[in-house]
TrEMBL record:
Record domain PurM-like N-terminal: where: 21-128
One example GO MF annotation: ATP binding
Pfam families reported for this sequence: AIRS (PF00586), AIRS_C (PF02769)
E.C. number: 2.7.9.3
Enzyme class, spelled out: transferase
Protein name, entry field: Selenide, water dikinase
Origin superkingdom: Bacteria
Residues covered by the PurM-like C-terminal domain: 140-315
Xref: SUPFAM superfamilies: PurM C-terminal domain-like (SSF56042), PurM N-terminal domain-like (SSF55326)
GO cellular component labels: cytoplasm
Keywords noted in UniProt: ATP-binding, Kinase, Nucleotide-binding, Selenium, Transferase
UniProt xrefs under InterPro entries: PurM-like_C_dom (IPR010918), PurM-like_C_sf (IPR036676), PurM-like_N (IPR016188), PurM-like_N_sf (IPR036921), SPS/SelD (IPR004536)
Length: 322
């Protein structure tokens, strides 16, 4: 029988919505917990197969961000089958299946509804030992922050939709978006672990750093000059390529930040840019930092950048940007 802690909350519910974490976690045995997540969105690239791969990598990432192992997935699709051939949906599903298989998981089926616009994603279930669970709420003062993929997918994909993105830049962005975060997760485990973990997606680096700061009761300081960027994306970081999320993320984060007057405005936009299938943001003890960077480089992750640090929250400011 499941016990509870507090009014109506089961003791086996290890992670819910309180800290805006990447997935929910429910313990089903003393040594086993389920990790559950769902995500779907409209196409960010034209090629259906590539879109499916990106959508799957994005959904699987939430399990890796909890230090879990993906087990099963269900497709979620909205598709205008009265206007477009079903072969397009088939290619999307095939691309997703490739990434799920690469993660060592299985697609069990899914559900499709008719809609005026294509949308696709997955509900993913994973497994984790409760003692090995990582969340965004464990960062400690003194920790260093490491990011494992370069930023800029929002700018790049928006420019690509407007036919204003060089093909080589789009290729680099796609390379990052289809890359599973399993390699980065394995690197941190091989280096001795970390204190807190999240992935960088729709809220941008600044938004997810804010959530980590709030969950941990700490202040996070980001060094904008140290942010890794997709090569060629800087030229695309102009207002006509800002997504709607750029403004939303600024509104979400700015009431809680201390922004240095010397902060580079362009680099700030990259911190606010919504990412699709972004990298892991890792809060690691400084004594393990070098080992982590070595393990990330050994696995050829797309970035191994020290982008900030965790400070005590002495003045109520959750996020410092300089």
């Amino acid at each position: 029988m499941t016990t509870t802690t507090g009014p109506g909350r089961p003791a086996d519910l290890l992670v819910a919505t309180e800290t805006s974490d990447d997935a929910g976690v429910y313990r089903i045995a003393p040594d086993l917990a389920l990790v559950q997540t769902v995500d779907f969105f409209p196409p960010v690239v034209d090629d259906p197969y590539t879109f499916g791969r990106i959508a799957a990598a994005n959904a699987l990432s939430d399990v890796y961000a909890m230090n879990g192992r993906p087990l099963t997935a269900l497709n979620i699709a909205a598709f205008p089958d009265d206007r477009l051939p079903l072969e397009i949906l088939g290619r999307i599903i095939a691309g997703a299946a490739e990434r799920v298989a690469s993660a060592g998981a299985s697609v069990l089926g899914g559900h499709t509804v008719r809609d005026a616009e294509i949308k696709f994603g997955l509900s993913v279930t994973g497994l984790v030992h409760p003692d090995e669970l990582l969340t965004n709420a464990g960062a400690r003062p003194g920790d260093r922050l490491v990011l494992t993929k370069p930023l800029g997918t929002g700018f790049v994909t928006t420019a690509a939709k407007k036919r204003r993105c060089p093909a080589a830049v789009l290729d680099r962005a796609v390379e990052g978006m289809v890359r599973l975060n399993a390699d980065a997760r394995d690197a941190l485990l091989a280096s001795g672990g970390c204190h807190a973990l999240t992935d960088v997606t729709g809220f941008g680096l600044a938004g997810h750093a804010l959530e980590m700061a709030r969950g941990s009761g700490a202040t996070i300081e980001l060094d904008l000059a140290a942010l890794p960027l997709i090569a060629g994306a800087e030229a695309l970081a102009v207002p006509r390529n800002f997504t709607r999320a750029s403004a939303t993320n600024r509104s979400f984060v700015s009431p809680h930040w201390d922004l240095s007057p010397s902060a580079d405005p362009l680099r700030l936009e990259f911190a606010l840019d919504a990412q699709t299938s972004g990298g892991l943001l890792i809060a690691v003890d400084p004594d393990r930092l070098d080992a982590l960077l070595l393990e990330l480089k050994a696995r050829d992750t797309l970035a191994a950048a020290v982008v900030g640090r965790v400070l005590p929250n002495d003045d109520g400011v959750a996020l410092r940007l300089h």
